[in-house]
Amino acid sequence: MAAQEFTCIGNVTTSSSVTSMSVSIPADTGSHLMLIYKLYQNSGSTVRLRFNNDSGSNYASTNLAYLWGNYTYANNQQNGILIAQPQDSDSYPSSGTVYIPDTQTSGKCVSIVQDGGSGSGRWFQSSGTWFNTSARVTSVGLHTYSSSQTFQNGSAIAVYALGES
Amino acid sequence: MGMWDVIDEAKLTSDAQMVDFQNIPDTYKDLCVIASVRDSHNTTATSTLILEINANYANNYPWGRYYYNSGSSGAGGGGNGTVNAPIGVMAKDGNSTGLFSPTYLYIHNYTDSSHYKHYSSWSGHQGAVNTNNYTMTEMRWGSWKQDAAITRLKFLSEQYVNNKNLKTGSWITLYGINDS
Asked: Do A64 and B100 touch (CB under 8 A)?
């Protein structure tokens, strides 16, 4: 077997307030992706992971979380896979990793995320599915809940893909 | 040598009882497995992906978990010593076609020959398309109560005792992780 390793195929660091950050996935990219993020938001809300910029209600996700002393559980069908819940200000960012095991086979666009937020021991665990059975993943992006929530200066994502070295 | 190197991988082109990674080199610090798996058992219930280390089928695998299953509340649980390690929830073949369960497994200091070994894992399940029902997310952790360095990892469905297999299309990749 040829040597293979994860290599960075794209990254975004924002210097202004934005509602999304995404990375394109070239056609010859390996089928395993890993997305690492650090997010600062202007107010607390849940971040969405989307594939191919699909903003339809074509995703289901399940999450298990701990926030401000309370455990929460939810399963949703929404316009993205819910992956993190950064709170307002620089004091309560979120950082975590999304694993996407297979980007090319029909119906297998699933992900796992472990998210850790600073301040009062917050964490967020999620897995989800994109209900698209035909498309190859051409981009992955993180989106705020609505236009009134923004990722703040210093927020960043990086996408790594499995490939031959 | 990269930070994350593929040591071995298996992408099943037919149902198989197991994925068996043997002769794992001792040249890395940690091991990581990223998998997309499905059980061949034709029902809608969930299965469990299990791990056997160094072919050691014995009560040496204590474990714990915390999970949320849609339609219920979150819950925890564990076992004090099963004969292999349950590492993640897995879709069965009665679930919607094409839905495979993602699993991420991390094994720390696998070459240490003087301590028990420890792992953490995260997994998810989606049972049907276009619904938020029949979903599950889970965190697990556990140990292998042996000092030997890990040289072999064997992955099976919990249903292997009933002659059930890992479904064709399942994909398991073993990574070696360097510390520099």
From this structure: no
Rg value, chain B, Cα: 16
Query: What residue spans define the domains of chain A?
Result: 4-164
d(CA A93, CA A119): 9
CA–CA separation, B66 vs A50, rounded Å?
26
Are A40 and A153 in contact, with CB atoms under 8 Å apart? Answer: yes
Look up residue B130 and give its DSSP letter. T
Q: Which residues of chain A from 20 to 49 reach within 8 Å of chain B, CB to CB? A: 31-32
- C-alpha torsion A144→A149→A153→A159, nearest 10: 0
Note the pTM of the prediction, 2 decimals. Answer: 0.90
3-state SS class at A46: coil
The 10s digit of each residue's pLDDT in B86-129 is: 999 999 999 888 889 999 999 999 999 999 999 999 999 888 88
Place of tokens 């297999």: B165
Given strand A20-24, what is the order of strands in its sheet? A20-24, A139-143, A47-51, A81-84
Spatial separation of the C-alpha atoms in residues A102 and A60, rounded to whole Å: 17
CATH 3.30.70 for domain A4-164: no
Question: Which three-class secondary structure state does DSSP give residue B53?
Answer: strand
Q: Which residue of A has its CA nearest to B5?
A: A5
